[in-house]
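batch_manifest entry 22 of 60
target: GTPase Der
source organism: Aerophototrophica crusticola
requested by: lab member K.T.
priority: normal
notes from requester: please return tokens only, no post-processing; we will run our own comparison against the previous entry in this batch. if the run fails, retry once and flag.
--- input ---
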Amino acid sequence: MPVAQRLTVAIVGRPNVGKSTLFNRLVGKKLALVDDTPGVTRDWRAADARVGGLDLTVVDTAGLEEVFDDSLEARMRRQTERAMERADVILFMVDARAGITGMDRHFATWLRRSNRPVVLAANKAEGAAARSGLIEAYELGLGEPIAISAEHGEGMADFVQALLPFVKEEEEGEAGEAEVAEPAELDAEAAAAAGLDLPAEPEPKALQMAIVGRPNVGKSTLVNSLVGEERVLTGPEAGMTRDAIAVEWSWKGRPVRLVDTAGLRKRARVEAKLEKLAVADTLRVIRMAHVVVLVLDADGILDKQDLTIARLVVEEGRSLVIALNKWDAVQDKQAALQQMKDRLQTSLPQARGVHTVTISALKGQKLDTLLDTVFEAYALWNRRIPTAQLNRWLKEMTEAHPPPLVDGRRLKIRYMTQVKARPPTFALFVSRPVELPEQYSRYLVNGLREVFGMPGVPIRMLLRKGSSNPYADD
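--- output ---
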């Protein structure tokens, strides 16, 4: 039976014609930053969508600029060209209300010469003010324009109809072969003897890895070095990245969803509306991540803003890995490492033993070590400890250092169990939980880290009132 293939559609056009608004409309989420300021989008981003029965991969791109030097605008244009090369169809957007500009005509000519499949969309076409611009769009020589409104969702049916001629179909695998129901306990050896194939292992879910840090510490350079291509814009300009850009990737056969984020400055210095949107986007990415790699500049290790970001990651319960970038330029490496360890010990005790890797993103040094560390931190973040083992450890800890006396009576710790992972979260049942000092909770948390080998992992301790230990006979 024929099945429609997924179609990759790259949305291109001059700045501020509504490309990101359409992208968000199609994917059904506000993934791309949208503002009236021209040139908000700098890197291209892709997301899956299903519109009118069509499965699409929609690509949002930076505004096309007629610049060919080494400026930021020229680098943005080259990024857009890379996105276009990967697309099945190019959706060229113009602003029907503003009319057809000289830049629109220039890029329409360029697209005609490229011999790429192009669909012309006239955006902001709602109302009488757009009629003249819609008629002018015919002059571009790209066929009949589709009248749409990305803001209000108008013209989506016509949009789907325009894409249908480019959808290819492929045959499904041999149909009609009955699948053999296999017992759940059938092992590989028995299956082979019976001439059966066991069901395939489910595909592992992608590890969500966010790259964060202050502006200009090398986050985007690190992303490009990891994936082996110039996927995101880099350059000397601070604040280059605005949108959080996700890259689907795999390392040693393990799927990774790598997210580059905007640099986080001190809150008092975040003034412009666009930067506030970018910061909010970065915070959203941190909350969705499994492992957060905090990139530090080796010339300025762990300043106040770095520590603020690290605390935020730990408070959100994400697994933290620190990458000391530009390490090749450091003269006294031993002193720099000691400085960072001392600062972490005093200023970030809630993530004692956090994994740290020295790298050079530009030269690609120790990136395999960084990724090994990321997956190790991810495994620890998913760690579960059996309840019986926990309570044997708890007994040893309380015998070595009994809970304090309160009002002349000693607090009684009944038992402990792990209630969840990601991050590891433990319920501690106490006779009077409100009275248990924070120092004693920290003593137990530090003991968990040391005995069960969970350095740097955010550990949560929930105090509960309990009268007896249901695991006493384990």
